[in-house]
Structures are given as C-alpha cells and as structure tokens.
Design goal:
The protein has 222 residues and is an alpha+beta fold. The chain is built from ten helices and four strands. It has helices at residues 11-22, 41-44, 65-75, 86-107, 111-114, 122-142, 156-165, 179-189, 192-196, 201-217; strands spanning 2-6, 27-31, 54-57, 60-63. It has a four-stranded mixed beta sheet with strand order 2-1-3-4, with helices on one face. Helix 1 links the parallel strand 1 and strand 2 (27-31). Helix 4 packs antiparallel against helix 6 (122-142) and helix 4 (86-107) packs parallel to helix 7. The chain starts with a strand and ends in a 5-residue tail after the last helix.
C-alpha cells in the first residue's frame, strides 16, 4: 500500500494528500510532527534531506512533491489530472512552477501572521506583496471560461497552486481584484478533498509551538 509521510501544516504535503484522495487511492497517512522527528535515523533512511512529503510505494521512496505528483499521474492515470493538449499542458506546468518558484517563497514572508506571531520587516512585506500581486495577475489571465486551469477537470495545477492561493486571505491578501481566481478558489474549497485536508486549529497550534521554540533558541542579534 502507498504510504505518505506528511505534515498537516505543509502545502507541499497537502498537494500530495489531495491528489491521493482525488485519485481515490488507498494509502496510509503517517504524520510527522517536525519537532525533531524528521531527523531521526529511520526517517532519514527514506528522506535523506529530512523533508516532507515522502511517498513510499513498492519499495521506492519518492521525495519532492512535484516528482511525487508526476509519479502518481503516470502510475495511476485515472482520473487524468494533466491535460494532453500541448498548450493546456504548458499552462498547467507554468502554474505549478510559478507557484513553487515565485508565489510560495513570497507567501512564507507571512508565516508569522498566519501563526499569530509578530510580523516581518515592512520592506520585506511590501516586496512580498508585490510579488504575490504579480503572480495572482498572471494566474487571473491564464484562467478562461473553463472551471480549472486549461481544463474542465481538476488538474495538478490546482493541487499545487490551490494549496497556496486559498491560504492568502488568511494572511490579509484579498482576492477581490481577481474575480476569476476568487471563483476558482471557492470551487476548490468546496471539494471534499480540500475540506478533508485542511489544517486543524490543533495542528496550527502545535506548529506555532515548534516555531516559537526555534525562535527562542536563536541567539539575539548584535
């Protein structure tokens, strides 16, 4: 049976979890607390970079969420979650990579606010807001009259971008200026897979405790 090592607070983990649910696959979910458990020898044996998610299938340990999604799509192609048309496939891939390379790094600036902790420097926040706005405008322009990016069906573009974009209102980034994207988000959040994988208040509280403990261990600036 498939086994997914994940952390409920991680968008990278959540995108794999959602894909497993959308493909209606049987799998075992192994929650990692990220409080040092990820550095233990038994986990390092399957994830040498001590990151989640990790998918274990038939003796193969797969790290990096995008690689895991490609593996699931290739091995378990029903339902199809990538377009076959060249233009549509390019759009789906662009959405995935722009999310990972541009949007997610900017969004992490607001992690303290998401956890109810003191925010970062105003200049860093403004720079992050500009980057997020650039990405959201790009995504808005990619959406057409179909309900999903380049498809009438949910794709891997949704599970990658959606697990980040749907969190933006929680850190004060409004989607009101992006009507197509706003509707797209509402459509995703109504899906059972989205609701089943949403981080609980308990998970957020536990992660906040870990982050605060790490911050307390850092030496003060000179």
């Amino acid at each position: 049976m498939l086994k997914l090592y994940h952390a409920p607070i991680s968008p990278n983990s959540r995108r794999v979890w959602i894909t497993l649910l959308e493909k209606k696959l049987e799998f075992e979910l192994v929650e990692m607390n990220l409080d040092g458990e990820q550095f233990q020898a038994d986990f390092l044996a399957i994830s040498p970079f001590h990151h989640v998610p990790v998918l274990v299938d038939d003796g193969l340990n797969i790290v990096e969420s995008l690689a895991i999604l490609d593996y699931l799509e290739a091995k378990y192609p029903t339902p199809t979650m990538l377009p076959t048309d060249a233009k549509d496939l390019a759009i789906a891939r662009m959405v995935q990579l722009v999310t990972v390379n541009e949007l997610l790094p900017a969004t992490t600036t607001f992690l303290p606010q998401f956890l109810g902790l003191p925010g970062g420097e105003p200049e860093e926040i403004e720079k992050a807001l500009q980057k997020i706005a650039q990405v959201l405008k790009f995504f808005e322009n990619l959406l057409d009259d179909r309900p999903y990016f380049a498809s009438h069906n949910l794709t891997l573009a949704e599970v990658v971008a959606g697990t980040v974009v749907t969190l933006l209102p929680d850190v004060g980034v409004s989607l009101n200026e992006y009507p197509k994207l706003n509707t797209w988000c509402a459509r995703l959040m109504a899906r059972p897979s989205w609701q089943a994988t949403e981080a609980t208040p308990e998970a957020i509280k536990a992660f906040k405790s870990i982050i605060m403990a790490r911050m307390a261990q850092k030496p003060p600036n000179d």
